[in-house]
Amino acid sequence: MDFTKVSQLGSKLSMTPPSAQQEAAFLSAYGNDKPFHPHPPMYIDGDYHVQKRPQHPQVHIHPITPSTVPSYRRLITVLLPIRYPDRFFGDSVADTTETALARVALWRDVPTSGTMISSDLASGKVVGGIQCRLEDPPSDSSDTRQLYIQTIAVLSPFRRCGIAANLLDTIIKTIIEHYEKVTHIYAHVWEANIEAIEWYRHRGFAIEEGVIEGYYRRLKPSGAKVVRRRIEIADHLAVNKSREG
After folding, report:
1. What are the tens digits of pLDDT across the range 205-227?
2. How far apart are CA 78 and CA 150, in angstroms?
3. Which residues of 123-153 are buried (b: 16+ CB within 10 A; e: fewer)?
4. End-to-end CA distance of the chain, in Å?
């Protein structure tokens, strides 16, 4: 598989939406997309700034529902060179409420504000998604838990809109508001995927020492790096501020 690279790494990118030609061509055939790095499920926006970006007015982050899971499944299947079992996608709709740890980014041609209604969901295009799972603590440790990022992906014409960062921020907010004793978020990243490693680094993730050899059996090199981030006091303050705002 030919993996393309992100150009102008670290440059400041605008929130200009993709052109009508880009959107029409890409959405008519997802297969035209060439991901620049494989699982671990991270298709980045190209925005390497630590400061959080506001959500694009044409994007809405929403729990995955039975109506959006087919598009989500197609997105994941096309973008990621890993075959996920039916159970994975079944898990994505196990919770369709605000406590959901699986979300899609919906793009609407007309900007919306507030909560989307069912008709809005039907007209929105699935352009990105994230799916995570909670992991119970080991029996010999404290009772704290951690969150594992299973997959996060964004269609290439939409990667300059801050969608991946918005998906991650939404999950962090969900953890703080609805789950207890979750202290860390972590993911595996292909060792050769420098862009994704830097994306995580600039969002507060520490890059752990060493490489897990053979983690990606179909890739060369086959190793994975672990990236990990604490849920900090600043995250709680940001959630509180958003409530007040």
Report:
1. 999 999 999 988 888 898 999 99
2. 16
3. ebbbbbbbbbeeeeeeeeeeeebbbebbbbb
4. 45
Closest CA to 169 of 51, 43, 17: 51
Q: What is the mean pLDDT of the chain?
A: 77
Q: How far apart are CA 68 and CA 61, in angstroms?
A: 12
More confident residue, 177 or 123: 177
The string of pLDDT tens digits covering residues 99-151 is: 999 999 999 877 665 555 555 556 689 999 999 999 987 666 677 899 999 99
Place of tokens 């499920």: 41
- Cis amide prior to 63 (ω within 30 degrees): no
Give the phi and the psi of residue 88 in degrees, each rounded to 5: -60, -45
Dihedral (CA of 225, 230, 231, 233) sign: negative
SS3 of residue 175 by DSSP: helix
pLDDT at 121: 58
Enumerate residues 6+ apart whose C-beta is below 8 A from 171.
101, 103, 130, 132, 147, 149, 185
Those residues with Cβ within 8 angstroms of residue 120's Cβ, 6 or more apart along the chain or in another chain: 60, 106, 108, 112
* pTM for this model (two decimals): 0.75
